[in-house]
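Help! Submission page says 'invalid entity' but I think these are all valid:
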Amino acid sequence: MTIVLQIAIDAISLGSLYALTALGIGLIFGILRLINFAHGDFITIGAFALIVPSAAVVASPFIGAWPFWALIPAIILIVIVLALAAERIAFRPLRGANPATLLIASFAVSYVLQHVILLIYTGRPKSVDIGGGLTEHIALGELRVPVIQIVTIAVSVALLVGLAVFMRRTTFGVQMRAAAEDFHMARLLGVRANTVIALAFGISGLLAGVVSLIYISQTGMLSFRMSLQLVMVAFIATVIGGMGSLVGAAVGGFVVGIASVALQAVLPEDAALMRDAFIFGFVILVLMIRPQGLIITRAARQRV
Amino acid sequence: MTSGSAVAMGLRKYWPLIGLTLLLVLIVAIAALTGSTQLQRTVAEGLIKLIIVIGLYIFIGNSGVLSFGSITYMMIGAYGTAWFTMMPNFKKLSLPGLPEFVIEMQVDPMVGMALAAGLAAVVALVTGAMVMRMNGIAASIATFAVLAMFYTIYNNWERVTYGMSSIIGLKMYVNMYVCLGYALVALLLAFLYQISRFGLALRAAREDEIAARAFGVNVYAQRIIAFTLSGFLIGAAGVLHGHFLGILTVAAFYIPITFITLAMLVIGGQNSLSGAVIGAIVITTVIEVFRILEKGVEIGGAMIQAPLGIQEILLGIVMLLILVFRPTGIMRGREIPWPFGARAAAADVPAR
C-alpha cells in the first residue's frame, strides 16, 4: 500500500510538471495554431538566468543566490519578457501564415536561443542548487515524501485553479477563450488581437518560468538541451488532451505523467530503458482510438 | 498540331524536371572544377539532404500534412544497410541480436541500398497506415511520436544497433557523383509522382479534402502511397549517409536533422518540387558561407572573421527573415518558370 501511494505521489508530481508545460504550449496553439517549439528554450533560459553568465566550468549563482521572495519573481519576469519579445520580434510578422511556416519559425527561434546559450555558457552541463530545504523528505506515517514533490503539486494545483478562474471570470479570460474557439469571429466582435496574443504569450511565459524553477530545484542540472524531453512530452500531452482545449492540455499532461511513472514501476529492468518508446507507442494508440484527443472542443469537431 | 510544337509542349511539361536536373549537374560540375575536397564534401552532404527534402516534399508538399517523423526512415535505411552489407564476423561480435540469416548475409552495396530503402518503405507503409487515420495536426504529432519511439528503441537496443555507441566500418563508396546520381533519380521519381494520377489526387485533397472525397479520391490510401514513397527516398538518403561517413550514431537521426531538412523545405516553398530543391540549395549555401566566415576570410588584405559559435545564430536569424518576407517560401509554391516565350501558355504542371 505504501509503495502504491508513493508511486501515486510521484506520478501526480511528474504529471503536474507536464501539465504546466503542456498548458503553456496549448494556450498559444489554441489561439495562433502555432506549435511553439521555443517554449522549452524559455524554460531553459529561466534556469540559466540563475547563474552568472560565463563559460566557467563551475557555475557561480547569480539570481540563484537571491532570497526566495526576490528570486521567484525575478526568474518569472525574465521568462515573461523573453516570451513577449519572441512574440513581438518573430511571431507577430508571421501572423496568419500557415502552420508549417509558424512551426519552422518557432524552430528557428529555438535554434537561435539554444545557440545563444551555447555561446555564453558553453555546452558543458552545470549544476546549481536552489532547492535548499526542498530536497528533504517529510514523513507521513510510513510514507517518506520529498518536500519538492508536495511543493510541485501544490503550486501546480494553485496555478491551474488560478488560470481556470482567470479564464472564466475575467474579461480578458473570456476574450482569450473566444479567440481560441474562433479567432476570426472573436476579432469581428471586437476582441483585440494584439492584446489577446500578447496576454497568451505572457501567461505562457509565466508558466514556463514556474516550470523552470520547479524543474531546476528537482534536478539541479543545467544544460542547453535540458528541456527538450520535457517539451516533447508536453506536445504529446496537448495532442492527447485534444488540441486547442486548455482543460485537455492539463489532462493530457497528467495522463502522460501518470503513464510514465506507472510504466517505470511495472516494466521489468530491461524494458524500463525503453519506457519512452512505450509511452510514445501508447500515444499513437490513444490517437488512433480518439484522433481528436480526449477532450474535443466545439471548433475542432469535424463536420463532414 | 505540328510535331514540332508537340515536342515543345512536352519540353514545357517536363521543364521543371529538366531545369532542376541541369541546376544540380551545374553545381556538381563547378565543385568538380574547383578541385576543392572540402567543397566536394559539402556538395555531397548537401545532395544527401536534398534527397531527404525531396522525400519530405513528396508527402508534405503534395498532401499538405506536416510530418515531423520522417527522419525515422532515414535511420532505418542507414542501419539497414549496416545490417545487410557489413562483415558477418563483425555482426556476430557486435550485433548478435540480429536474426541468424542477417548475420550471415553480406550483400553488394547496391543490393544493400535496395534492401535497406525497401525496409524503410515497408516501415513507412505500416506506420503510415496507422498515422494517416488521423487528421491534420494530430497526424503530424503522431509522426513525431513515431520518430521518438524508434529513436528510443534504436538508442537502447544494444544487441541490434550497438546502442549509443557508433557502428564503424561501413564501406565508404559514396562520393559527390554517387550522391548526384541518386539525387537525380529522386528528382525524377518525385516529378513523375506529382504529375501521375496519384499525385494529382493527393494535391486535390490538399486543396479541398471534402471535394476530393466527393470526386472519389480515397484520401487515406493516397496519403499512405505518398508516405511510403517518401519513406523509400528518405531511407535511401540514410543509406548514402551511412556509406558517406562510414560511421553510424543513433544521435544523428533526431531533432537537429529533422529541423534543418524541414526548414529547407518550408523556406524553399513546400508546395512545389522546385521549392524543395531551391530551399536545400539556399540553406546549404548559407550554412557553408557562415562556416567559411567563421574560419576567417581575407578580403583586400584585411582578415574578416566571425566570432566562433555565431554561425548557428546567424543561420536561425536568416531563416526567420526569409520566412517573414516570404511566408510561402522562396518559390511561393511555383515551379521554375519556362524560360522561353509567353509564360501564360506554359503547360502548367499543377503548380499550387
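Support: the input was valid. A stray whitespace character was the problem, and the output above is from the cleaned input. The radius of gyration of chain B is 21 Å.
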